Every structure is written in C-alpha cells, then in structure tokens.
Amino acid sequence: MLYQQLLSELEANADTKYRDFNRRLLKNDKLKVIGIRVPDLRKISKRFSSDDIENILYFPDEYYEVTFIKLTAVSRLEYGEFLKYIDKCVSLIDNWAVCDCFVPKCIEKHKDEFLPYIDKYLNTDGEFYQRFALTTLLQFYLEEKYLDYIFSAVVKAYTEKYYYVHMAAAWLIAEVLVKYYGRGVEFLNSASLNVKTHNKAIQKANESFRLSQERKNFLKEIKR
Question: Cα–Cα distance between 58 and 216 in angstroms, integer?
Fold first, then answer.
C-alpha cells in the first residue's frame, strides 16, 4: 500500500466528532488528527506484514493515525526483527496516546534482554523516550524481581521536568502499591521521589478499587 492510498482510506472513514474529541484529549495543538478510532487503526495495521515495515516506516508522520499504524505494525514483530526498528519507533513518539498504545508483546519473553534499551531511553533527555521506558516497565516488569530496578528508574526519570514522565512514574508506583504494597510503602517512605510525583502516586493508588480502605487511609497519612 502506498502512503496516499492509506491516507485516502483514513480520510474517507474519518469521524469528525471523534477527531475533535481526540484532539482535546491528546493536548497537542501541533498534532494533526484525522479522526479514526483505535480499534480501527489496529485493524488497518494488521494488513502490514514484516515485509512491509521498511516501506511504511518511510511514510510521512504528519498525522497521528499514520504514526499509530506504523508503531502498531512494528509492535507485532518477533523480537529479533522488532529490535531493528525500536530506536526509530521510539523517536517517532510525540504524544501520550501513541506512547501508551505502543506495547510490543515480544518483550514479554525477553525482559532481561530488553533492559539495556530501557536504560538507554531513561538516560535520553526526551519526554516520550522516558515515558516509553516507564510504560514498558508498567506493562511487562511488575514482578518482585524487578522492583528495585523500577524504583531506580522512577528516581532517575525527569519527573520534575516533564509532565508526562511525572504522570507515568506516578502511575507505575501506584501499580506497585496495588501489587506489592509493603515494598511500595517502603519506597515512598524513603522520600526518593520529588513531592509532586510522590503525592500523585498516592492519589492514583487511592483511585484504585484494588486497595482496601485501610491501606488507602494509611497512604493519605504519608503524603508530603
């Protein structure tokens, strides 16, 4: 499929009301949005096989939907193939929605091998490089063996500089509190996070139905 063919199909199926809603949700005035819902974008991405990846990665990234399709197609590759494109894909992320929907399933079976990439993105001064690192930890690494790594990652991340990194770090620690409450509380009590992210993590944990009211009340007591 050529770029203009893809663009014509997307524009023919655009939902203007959804487009306007999505623009407000994405909070990025520079982002051009056509107005295609996520399930439909995923269906379109399935048309592209591994043989098509080199071609579609050359498509212009002028529209949110095109970048979404490209990254979703790459996310279905086998691990070895996926690694050829991961740096290019992460460099294309410029909004939270594409970032959070870029969930390469192949990482699940290669968690230890992928850690150097997470390290690299955490050490890159870029909002969505770091958010991708944190959301990948959230998706695949919420296990006891990785808790120390997670704690180190959120401390290292630029949570004071970048809003979407701050929110991802808070989300990640909130999930730790749900799954490993004692370790999460121990980390919060270490005062390793800045106050804003510390308190946002507690807020997000308190919004979860998976924590008891007793635990929620305690978390409120350790807000800073």
Answer: 48
